[in-house]
Specification:
Elements (H helix, E strand, L loop, with lengths): L18 E7 L5 E4 L4 E5 L1 H7 L1 H9 L9 E3 L4 H7 L19 H9 L3 H10 L1
Parallel strand pairs: 1-3, 2-4
Antiparallel strand pairs: 2-3
Helix pairs in contact: 1-2, 3-4
């Protein structure tokens, strides 16, 4: 019997549907980030460590070795992570016209994860 089928109480929520990012789906990824709205991002841990003191601290506090790809659930939505993650990779990122009034969630996220390349892009655009 499937887990949750026929359960009593009716108070359980169906699990959110997970959607794999088209951009962050590399076969050689070694880490998965998940957004609050169910987006999956297969990333390279070394890139996150090189580009963010916050990720360094998060990984330092949760050192667990396992066969399965580690998953970290974040409080940001998929759109925000899709905007931030390219800044952790060595690639050319298109110019972005930042509107501090319309795009505060991105700026807050970049600051929270100390995504320095993203912060520099925002500062250059303002």
């Amino acid at each position: 019997m499937a887990h949750g089928a026929g359960s009593q109480g009716g108070g359980t929520k169906a699990p959110k549907k997970l959607v794999l990012s088209e951009r962050f789906c590399s076969a050689d990824a070694d880490f998965e980030l998940r957004s609050t709205d169910g987006h999956r991002f297969l990333v390279h841990k070394s890139n996150l460590l090189a580009g963010s003191k916050t990720f360094c601290e998060m990984f330092e506090s949760s050192r667990e070795e396992s066969e399965a790809m580690p998953v970290l659930e974040l409080v940001e939505d998929g759109e925000t992570l899709e905007k931030m993650l390219p800044y952790f990779y060595l690639e050319r990122i298109p110019l972005w016209e930042v509107d501090a009034d319309k795009d505060p969630k991105y700026i807050v996220c970049f600051d929270k994860y100390q995504a320095l390349r993203a912060i520099e892009a925002v500062e250059a655009a303002l």
